[in-house]
Every structure is written in C-alpha cells, then in structure tokens.
Amino acid sequence: SVPNTTTATKAVPALPDAQIVTQVKHYTDRLFSFRCTRPASMRFRSGEFVMIGLMGDPNPETGKVKPLLRAYSIASPNWDEELEFYSIKVPDGPLTSRLQHINVGDEIILRPKPVGTLVHDALRPGKRLWFFATGTGFAPFASLLREPQTYEDYDEMIITHTCREVGELTYGHDLIEGLKTDELLNEVIGDGFWKKIKYYPTTTREHSPKMGRITDLMRSGAAFADLGVSVLNPDTDRAMICGNLAFNIELKAMLEEYGLIEGANSNPQHYVVEKAFLD
Ligand code: A2P
C-alpha cells in the first residue's frame, strides 16, 4: 500500500476561535475594511479592541503552527450582529501582508476578550466630545459614532481625521454620511442627531480642501476658527485620541496644556488615548 503521510501533515488545523469573513472593502493600496461573524456570547463596549489574526506559517523545525494576532479596534457598534475592522496593509507586515488578501467565506481568528480605554466609562460627563484620529485610528470612532449613548451624553461632537492622502479619508467620510440614514440611531435618538456632528478631515501629503496636521491647525487657531468653536476647556470638553504614536504623544501634551486630565476605566477624567494598530 502507498503511505499516505502527505494528507496527514497537510491537514488544516481547525482554527481556534474562528470567525467567517462576510465582507471586504478596499479603499486604497494602504487601507481596507472587513466584516466577520460575531461570536454569539461576545459582549463589548463601543470603542474597545480585540486580538484578531490568522494562523502563522509552520515552524520549520517542529512543524507547529501558532496564531499570528494583533490588537484591532472594533469599528462596529456593540449592537451590530457582525464585527467590522478597519486595517492598514503593510507590504512586509507579518499579519497585514496576508490579512489584506482575505475574501468572503475565509476564516479569521478572533479572541473574544474585548478591552480598551476609548470608552464612555473612562470619561466624566461633558458637553462636547472630540474624536482625534489619524489613519486607521478612525476605527474605534466608527464604533462610537454608531453608538446611541454618544448622542445621549453630548450636545456636540467634533471629529478630526488627519491622513496622508484624500483616498484615506473615504472610510470615515462615508461612515459619517451614512449616519444620516442610520435606522437604529434615527429611531432611538430621533432624526437630526447627526447635526450634532462637526467633521474636520485634513490631509498632509495630497491636496484637499483642508491641509495640515490637526496638531498644527489647532496651535495656529485655524481649526477652531474653521469649525467656529471655542478652544478646549476641561469644564466642557472631553476627548478621545487614536492615531500613530507621535501624534498621540503630541496631542496628549496639547490637551494637558488646555487643562484636560487623562482618564481610565477605573478613574474617569477628561480624555483618553489609544494607539492605532501598526503591523
Ligand atoms: P505627515 O504626512 O505630516 O507625517 P501615518 O499614515 O504615517 O500613520 O500618518 C497618518 C497621518 O498622521 C499623516 O497625515 C501624518 O502627517 C499625521 N501625523 C504623523 N505624526 C503626527 C503628529 N505628531 N501630529 C499630527 N499628525 C501627525
């Protein structure tokens, strides 16, 4: 008889915590979003992140495969029956070089243990809520913007998104446009809730109506003048920051200068920060 060892070693291990991809959208050669099934028992607070990924390549010596996981903010709100993620594509990134090729029907690994600080619980009550994002840092705000509590808790929301190129603003722009016809929000909050939103997209490396880093635009006063709003004040303003590391550090220092204090789940204050995923 013919030994049949090939089939045995090639057998695909059943993925632990597997979920099925239900939608994939590519925005630019650097950005894409996807949706997948949600574990029936998984609960999370809008703004939190989970570990997701794919099986890694087999170890050349032992043949063992280990999951390759990274932290991803959940971009969908907690009431959604599916989960959505917004990702960068890094050509030589261990995970995203492969994740960018997923298709509908594929399996991904999702550890259903959500955590994070970009949650309403980490902020004290306030009047205005600022979302400051760069690149894929928009993801947790995509969740919070579809969360009814956001509109119940604040009179006004200001969303800034700084990206290199115009095409990188599409995901956020479309999401905010989509709020106008969001059935759940219209039903729960009443239509017109989206009028509370001021959206301030800027680009740094391609021409657009508003150019520059949000940090520079705030320092010069241009951002406040363009938006027709007052400078941040700890009595009224709350903020969430999510972007690349340099941005987070710079903006955090600016918010502290305005007198805002960093909060946490255990100690709600004026602002919270989280780093956007980078492969
Ligand atoms: P810039 O093009 O001037 O570097 P990335 O894709 O590299 O994560 O960057 C996303 C956006 O964040 C870019 O528009 C980038 O601007 C901007 N950015 C990078 N560092 C900072 C910072 N320290 N403060 C404000 N914006 C920043």
TrEMBL record:
Top class in the EC scheme: oxidoreductase
Residue span, FAD-binding FR-type domain: 13-121
Catalytic activity field: 2 reduced [2Fe-2S]-[ferredoxin] + NADP(+) + H(+) = 2 oxidized [2Fe-2S]-[ferredoxin] + NADPH
Record flagged with keyword Nucleotide-binding: no
Keywords recorded for this protein, A-Z: FAD, Flavoprotein, NADP, Oxidoreductase
GO molecular-function terms, A-Z: ferredoxin-NADP+ reductase activity
Top-level taxon of origin: Bacteria
Similarity field: Belongs to the ferredoxin--NADP reductase type 1 family.
Protein's name in the database: ferredoxin--NADP(+) reductase
Organism expressing this protein natively: Octadecabacter arcticus 238
